[in-house]
Amino acid sequence: MQVRFYIVIASLMLSFTAVSQTKGVIEVYSEEDTVSRYFVSNSELYNQSWDTLAQPNFWKVVMALPPDSCVVNVAATREILFKTSFVEWKKQTEPQKTAYKERIRKKYCLNHGTKIYVTSGKNHFYNFDGVVPSISKGVELFQEYKTDPWFAQAILLIESPGKVAYSNVGAYGPFQLMKSVARHHGLIVNKTVDERKDFAKSAMGAAHLIRTSCIPEAKRILKKNDITFQETDLWFRLFVLHIYHAGAGNVDGLMTSMDPDNGGMELITTMWQSEWGGFKNASQNYSQVALASQMILNDIILEKSKYIYECYNR
Fold it and tell me: What is the C-alpha to C-alpha distance for residues 123 and 272, in angstroms, rounded to an integer?
């Protein structure tokens, strides 16, 4: 039996904590399991054409590919050249890989110095269906902690979606907090207890980090560079995400080296192609992945019902 969903603007629900103060939170209700789930609308993503940029669309493709496949792409722009077997790519020696990339440059009339990436598929990591229930819980908790719930949705989609895992630098839990950061923001982490694995406590720590550190630092850095902003602007939220991932010091240094004149999409896309200190490829990718995963989440919601589709596009 097909499950029907209904969508309700959350600001109309008096029983939902602090919802009246948060724009764009929506309730999706399933008749089949009588469960309401809460998400943050991403209309700005489409209204401002972020969804047409090559970078998030590149990651959207990568997230859907199995790990034995790969996408050959131009590093600077994430232009997809073609898909191929990652298994066969890994069989090559380093000199063979170098020669392979040079043949690609010639075939596509690219400059000799153009950096070519071979990016493997990551659908084994990005379990979006599995993370959907967690997003709803995270949105509610972030509202309870008086923090923009968009960040809960974005981080849960990016970091260990649908599972709890350690990163290669020791971050852990659904919000991928480092030990020292978790302790600083109210969690117990020692030899016998690690509250980062507890969803509610991890959400509390992440919300406190974003509310008391990442957002204030973002404001400080932007004001220092004479860039105007609104906290609900999508580009500002992406800027805050970069601070969450790379740290304020790295983002501050990057901004000084870039010396930008404006905020908005121009600033974010310039950050995607700029490096400074610890702000390198993984940091550049972070907000690209955020946009791609938001697009995929939107697709998942829209697939549930034509009614939701009509509501999104009024």
Answer: 23
Domain of residue 237 covers 129-302
For Cα atoms 121, 71, 266, give the angle at the middle one, nearest 5 degrees.
100
Distance CA 124, CA 108 (A): 30
Please state, in angstroms and rounded to a whole number, the distance separating the CA atoms of residues 186 and 78. Answer: 39
The C-alpha atoms of residue 59 and residue 281 are separated, in whole angstroms, by 14
CATH number of residue 237's parent domain: 1.10.530.10
**DSSP three-state, residue 8:** strand
Please tell me the pTM assigned to this model.
Answer: 0.86
> Tokens 């990652």 sit at which residue?
86
Ranges of residues in the chain whose predicted pLDDT is under 70: 1-23, 29-34, 160-166, 304-314
Q: pLDDT for 171-217, tens place per residue? A: 888 998 989 999 999 999 999 999 999 999 999 999 999 999 999 99
Distance CA 202, CA 314 (A): 36
User: 253 and 270: one domain?
Assistant: yes
User: Sign (positive/negative) of CA torsion 246, 252, 256, 262?
Assistant: positive
Question: How many other C-beta atoms lie within 10 A of the C-beta of residue 289?
Answer: 25
For the CA atoms of the chain, what is the radius of gyration?
A: 20
Q: Are residues 287 and 193 located together in one domain of the fold?
A: yes
Angstrom distance (rounded) from CA 210 to CA 241: 9
